[in-house]
Amino acid sequence: MERQGYKAHTVQSAVRSLKSIARRVSLLDVEAVKAYLSAAPLTQSRKEVLADHLARFYHYRGIPFSKPHYKRVETLPFIPPESEVDQLISGMGRKTATFLKVFKETGMRPGEAMALRWIDIDFEKATVNVSPEKSSKARQPKISNTLLAMLNRLPRKHAYIFRCQENDPVRSLDYQRRCFNRQRKRLAEMLQNPRIDAISFKTLRHFKATMEYHKTKDILHVMQVLGHKDIKNTLVYTHLVNFESDEFVCKIARTVDEAKALVERGFDFVTEVESVKLFRKRK
Length: 283
Hints:
CATH topology of the largest domain: hpI Integrase, Chain A
Strand order of the largest sheet: 3-5-4
Helix content: 40-55%
Shape: elongated
Distance between the termini: 46 Å
Oligomer: single chain
Number of helices: 11
């Protein structure tokens, strides 16, 4: 797979998948593997991925293999309300909370966030340079002063913000994900809210995309935020927003500091009446 140009995280994911199957059935028994895959309580999409991994493995071993046909079922991603996202972030440790805040504000992929270096953060302009993965586009999203402050509280032991210097990016991300999963489960139990335990790194990317489309109604803008090259990957978010039921929270600002605070909280400027600035944000 490496010789064919697959990324390290894709190779390691394939190896983990094959090892998982091998713990349950002999990989050299093709029919037993097919029977296991057929009965496994997995989604059709996951079975399709596993079948691809198995096809590469059997081709490498020179073993005849007729790949089972699994039809991917398109499902809409889980999008939690912002209140639950904020509960999740506030309940994490300092480093994990900052990692999640990056997802919420930028819509990065986990691998992109793990690759962030301190030199990628422009503290003067409040921007971050995203090195793309999965053939995405490079981009430079704005980030809030709150996130800048969270980043400033992290230790600067080496060039990378989140990645462990001694580990490769894949191992670092796996470690970060395990830490997050443990903290998330404890928080969900403490809050008695199982929805918290359903929020993943990818969920926050979906959340960002949905909120951006809700705010702008511009699918091309969302495509740019996510770094997609194919708009088909972005169009799913048009099914997640119902503009017919728009409700807003309205706030006023009498000073520059009040207006600045509202903008940082996601409020949009509407108009000015009698020297008072009006802002609004969708509920």
